[in-house]
Amino acid sequence: MIHFPAFRIAGLALAITLAAAGSVSAAKPGDKALEDVRILSDDAMQGRAPGTPGSALARAHILKRFGEIGLSPVGDGFEHPFSFDKRDGTRVEAINLLARIPGSTPGGKVLVVSAHYDHLGVRGGEVFNGADDNASGVAGLLAVAEAFKVQPPKHDVILAVLDAEEGGLRGARTFVDNPPVPLSTIGLNINFDMLSKNKKNELYASGASAYPALKPILDAVAATSPVRLMQGHDTDADGPQNNWTSQSDHYVFAAKGVPWVYFGVEDHPEYHRSTDDFATIPQDFFRRSVATVVAASLALERDLDRLQSGH
């Protein structure tokens, strides 16, 4: 295991604290997304494997951003611990982070926006920083939270920053097994996983094949989106390997019959490699990708009541 000097960790923690001290009042949603990715994919985070000091440092940044944005906790707090056993019998203590933005009309359907913050950790002496997978998705979720604070939603919105997605979707399974609201009240799960790297200027939104009511909403967003918003990767038409239905945390919602839409890019050469660093992110594409998922999330929340049947 790689050991990072104490001053390295402390220095990054100080940078996180100073960044959180600024006001978001003069900023637009998404303005801090690149900085969120840079911090979360720093070497000091040790690849954010569950139960590690790097994971704790990543949580500290996310929690400070929750406070900066002005989010409310879910239940007794933002942190929701759970544990699991690895294949070698090692017990791992993991933590989901849950926040809420109250809707203007309480009692209706709830929107859950999710992104996992864990990655592969340190392997063979190399840090797998996971800038795209999935620091980018967490940054997208935080940008969406900022947007809902500027344009308050009609429906309650739960923001779920989930742990232990890699190798088992464990954080999402814990959320669904112990939901903070009845599953029957969740009208849609929007999941972000890998938003920042695509040479073709393409971002995919999957889920409309199972829930056709999503298609016209996504079509309307795509008509003006700053990236090419595509739909697909949600059936076996092009082979099971190209069906993303089970490829990230949205799958556990899908398995319970909750409508879902998953935003992500196609695999790239840095996927699950130690080269998935902040320096390899095309910053202009990422900014436009974040703007797209913000616009889509606002649109999907506005039309949440149309998605009851999924058809």
UniProtKB/TrEMBL annotation:
PANTHER family: METALLOPEPTIDASE M28 FAMILY MEMBER, PEPTIDASE M28 DOMAIN-CONTAINING PROTEIN. Pfam families: Peptidase_M28. Gene3D superfamilies: Zn peptidases. Transmembrane segments: none annotated. One of its GO terms (molecular function) is metalloexopeptidase activity. This is Peptidase M20. It comes from Caulobacter henricii. The keyword Ubl conjugation does not apply. Residues 96-295 form the Peptidase M28 domain. It comes from the Bacteria. Keywords: Signal. InterPro entries: M28_fam, Peptidase_M28. Residues 1-26 form the signal peptide. The keyword Zinc-finger does not apply. One of its GO terms (biological process) is proteolysis.
